[in-house]
Amino acid sequence: QVQLVESGGRSVQDGDSLRLSCAASDHSFSNLVMGWFRQPPGKEREFVAAISYRGGITDYRDSVKGRFTISRDNVKNMGFLQMNSLKPEDTAVYYCATSKIHYTWKVVVRVDEYDSWGQGTQVTVSS
């Protein structure tokens, strides 16, 4: 499994922007789908965004489309989540993850399709 470490989370105001980073331990990262998930207070972990191994395919949950952008740099074994126009309902612990399987033709969005997870980074958006 890939070791993942997220960073970049902090407390911000409604409408602010943040960029989360995910550092992977080795180059196997470049062969896997990368996803961002979040867990709001008192709720289950939910899908936010995913990107294919080469970056050509992305998917987002509806509530973040047009505001969040997922990207990756396979040379540096890094993943990113640019979050703009943040809202209080975006408050959560954010996790990056890599898929169990090397998919070449799609991204995956279910928690159980990922088997490597970071420790999470807290994002708090105040109104």
Describe the structure.
- It is a single chain.
- With 127 residues, the chain is mainly β.
- It contains no helices and 11 strands.
- The chain has strands at residues 4-7, 11-13, 18-24, 34-39, 46-51, 58-60, 68-73, 78-83, 92-99, 114-117, 121-126.
- The strands form 2 sheets. Strands 2, 4, 5, 6, 9, 10 and 11 form a 7-stranded mixed β-sheet that branches.
- The model has no long low-confidence stretch (mean pLDDT 96).
Structural class: mainly beta
* End-to-end separation: 38 Å
| Mass-distribution shape | globular
Mean pLDDT: 96
Helical residue percent? under 10%
Low-pLDDT ranges: none
Largest sheet: 7 strands, mixed
Q: How much strand?
A: over 45%
**What's the count of strands?**
11
Helix and strand run: EEEEEEEEEEE
Radius of gyration: 13 Å
Q: Total number of helical segments?
A: 0
Identify the notable features of this structure and list them briefly.
single chain; four-stranded antiparallel sheet; 11 strands
What does this entry show, briefly?
This protein is mainly beta and 127 residues long. The chain is built from no helices and eleven strands.
